[in-house]
Amino acid sequence: MSKFKIDIFNFPRFCFDFGTNFVRIGISDKGVIQENNVIAHHIYRDKYLFYGKEAKELIGKTPKIIKIIHPVQKGVINDFDAFYNLLSFIKEDQLLGSWANLKFAPYFSYAVVGIPNFATEIEQRASKEVLQKLGFNQVFLVPSAIACAASLVDDLFVSKPFIILDLGAGKVEVSIISKGGVVLSRYLDFGGFFLDERIRHYLHLKYAVAVGYATAERLKIELLNFNNSEKQITVKGKALDTGLPKEIKVKTSEILEALYPSITRIVDEVKNIIEESPPEIVEDITTNGVYLVGGLSFIDGLDKFLSDEVKVKVNKVDNPTRSQIDGLLKIAKSPQLLRVVKLPDV
To answer: Which among 336, 344, 333, 345 is positioned nearest to 11, based on CA atoms?
Structure first.
């Protein structure tokens, strides 16, 4: 126990949110670093060239000898080697580069990382091993839903049951939280990236125009809303019949038409988990409601739309994309809390 206390109080606490779109690293008393979870690999030279925002800007623009890799898919590590190199770049360029006096001693430093509730033992082990390879002596896994909940309530163990709806880039996770634990959890294996793909497919069918992922993401961010507000923007794509550039005007109603089936699946999943919940906690869930976290929770009017469909109060939080990393930092500051909420060793 004394060694555990030394680790906690004499060295920085590192927290990791392995998001599909962004990786976030929180350091106690320092701050949070956020970077795009993308890396570029030169196939012939077998070398990683670019990472983060720089690599994301290359999507769709690289020759065949350079492969753009998203090393985290659906909230879990999909390419171990690529992700390790991405974290190594961030460690050298941003952690040690920005904070030269950062006290980083591998044998005395430890990390806390959020992991989806549906992650298998192999996926959990990969999350631990990538950070151990990076130099951390101990790695503790915490359910991502618990981490989000920790950032939203003062005391996890006295809070009444509520739902965390995590709308991420790679997955949608719905969890009922009560007394510091996960009562029920369900997930859908799609997220913001899938919605971008649905927009591309819709424009392909309706206008016979191919647009890139960046354009589809822009349409989703700028047009999608549930406030009955009709917007319109002009984008450029490639006409499928001629192969030449073509401008099209896209409206909010069209984006809603493209994405409504996916949004309906999210609504149904929230309804299902409420129906499956023990009758003793249904009243508390109705009172406390659903908390929206993740990047898709920024969609205007989504909270009211979900509330009207599910008949339960839906709460928006101040900084939904920071909920998990903020909760992990809070957990890491309390050895007692960490011991209770961490997952068993794998």
So the answer is: 333
Q: How far apart are CA 17 and CA 34, in angstroms?
A: 9
Q: CA 70 to CA 56: how far, in whole Å?
A: 9
Tell me which residue has tokens 């499928």: 240
Inter-residue contact 184 to 117 (CB < 8 Å): no
What six digits make up the tokens of 238? 């490639």
Q: From 130, 14, 23, select the one nearest 75 (Cα to Cα).
A: 23
SS3 274: helix
Domain count within the chain: 2
Residues near 176 by Cβ (< 8 Å), separated by ≥ 6? 161, 162, 163, 182, 183, 184, 185, 273, 277, 281, 285
**The whole model's pTM is what?**
0.92
Among 331, 289, 325, CA closest to 310: 289
The per-residue pLDDT for range 141-200, each reduced to its tens digit, is 999 999 999 999 999 998 899 999 999 999 999 999 999 999 999 999 999 999 999 999
CA distance linking residue 221 with residue 231, whole number of Å:
12
* pLDDT, tens only, 34-81: 999 999 999 999 999 999 999 999 998 999 999 999 999 998 999 999
Say yes or no: 228 and 240 in one domain.
Answer: yes
Do 199 and 310 have their domain in common? no
Distance of CA 187 to the CA centre of its chain: 13
Residue 189 and residue 173 in contact, taking contact as beta carbons nearer than 8 Å: no
234 and 250 co-located in one domain: yes
